[in-house]
Amino acid sequence: MSFRDEDLTDGGNGSLKKSKKKLKGESAWRPEGPRDPFALLDSLPEKKQQEIQRALHLFSLGTSLPKTLREAKKHTYRFWDTQPVPKLGDNVTAHGPIVGSEGSIRDEPYTLPPGFSWDTLDLTNPCIMKELCSLLNENYMEDDDNTIRLDFSSEYLQWVLQPPDCQSQWHCGVRVQTNKKLVGFVAAVPADVRVYETEKQMVHVRLLCVHKKLRQKRMAPVLIRELTRRVNLRGLYQAVYTADIVLPTPLSSCRLWHRPLNPRKLMEVNYPRLRQNMNLQRALKFNRLPEVTNTKGLRPMTKEDAPRILPLLQEHLCKFKLSPVLSQPQLEHWLLPRENVIDTYVVEGDDGSLTDVVSFYTVTSRVLNHPVHTGLRAAHLLYVISTGTELTDLMGDALILAKSKGFDIFTAFDVMDNASFLEKLKFAVSDKSLHYYLYNWTCPWMSPDEVGLVLPS
Ligand SMILES: CC(C)(COP(=O)(O)OP(=O)(O)OC[C@H]1O[C@@H](n2cnc3c(N)ncnc32)[C@H](O)[C@@H]1OP(=O)(O)O)[C@@H](O)C(=O)NCCC(=O)NCCS
């Protein structure tokens, strides 16, 4: 049994229509059939499970959501078609909310199937944070052939989910009632965003995740509706989010680029998005970097730099059609260096002025079943602002710094001004796209170089 979307559009009371079969606990979201295929899969050794997943991927037998606009046009969006988002194919010229804020907001949480309950996660509790890490590490995105898996640390999740003014109500979990196991999660964090000429208080939606055994049971729409309700209760009606699938309707789409820092290791782990036809010797030579940075006055950011970075960043972000509006506490939260989470460097001139900023965050992955390597570290570009140093030179130094800190690869989306240095610095384009979305806001499409917002997931 699973939720049907119409169960959730019943004029606000969200009551679950009674099923003839009485299903309890986790079985409410369990696949129907004589034998649970997941139990069958679980009984196999992990290596065998991976082989099966790889084969499914190869033959495209796995269910998948649209990755392109063309596929999206053939897909029926049972849930998203009920939501205040622009329709696919609409030529949007207007700017503004799709629905007003005058409707009543339901008081009660959306109904879950029997055996499941909502839980607002208190992420200041280390045990709960550990549970969230486990859910995400075992169930969040994997590379297509299931050999490299994202590995979230509690420090990283604190950074991503607990910025200033965050609301614990927006850390929304679903548990199995009997054993309290966390099986679903979605979060929102407050964010002021500038879209074209409008500054709007909204939320960033992050880390939507459903346990693998409960997939394709329509749990995601319930999580999204419940989070929307909780956000509405605080008087906010817009959200910004990203996804690698095409939903109605992307505001912009960008591509991921990557720059090997440790080509030997990337080749050894068969890094899936590395499509360079090179042997090891050539790859080592091609990707070689100087040992030391070149920019005079380049140093790690300190708290005292924040008031001087703020105007620099705001002026830079004003150039784009979609960008965050940051207060000083928010800037300190997002940029101040934290070990294994976020690195920010500034360039200080002889006169003490700050002219440039470059920041990148850490994305850690686990390498599964490899005889030598267990983990991979990627540095992902957050912001780069250059007013004194040439942008390509500054980014070249960022690569050197990342390599010296033990990162294996540097990644960046082709948003903002990034396209101007990606090829020059030997980044290669990957096959991974990322789409930007706004909830309950319509405005014309923008190209990636008009996007000034990066949302760490
Ligand atoms: C994303 C995820 C929660 C979706 O769960 P699921 O069990 O596959 O899907 P469900 O049956 O619960 O719901 C399907 C609906 O959710 C929508 N959906 C799926 N992924 C979505 C996403 N990332 N963002 C928004 N909506 C999404 C689908 O489009 C579908 O709605 P539709 O009928 O309008 O097309 C699940 O696949 C997951 O946990 N994946 C790993 C983590 C991840 O990739 N998170 C998203 C990061 S952007």
Automatic annotation (TrEMBL):
Any one cellular-component term (Gene Ontology): membrane
Coarse class of the protein's main subcellular location: cytoplasm
Enzyme nomenclature, EC number: 2.3.1.97
Pfam families linked to this entry: NMT (PF01233), NMT_C (PF02799)
Membrane topology: Peripheral membrane protein
Location of the Glycylpeptide N-tetradecanoyltransferase C-terminal domain: 268-447
Domain Glycylpeptide N-tetradecanoyltransferase N-terminal: 104-254
Biased composition (Basic and acidic residues): 24-35
Family label: Belongs to the NMT family.
Compartments reported by the entry: Cytoplasm, Cytosol; Membrane
Descriptive protein name: Glycylpeptide N-tetradecanoyltransferase
Source organism of the structure: Oryzias melastigma
Main function: Adds a myristoyl group to the N-terminal glycine residue of certain cellular proteins.
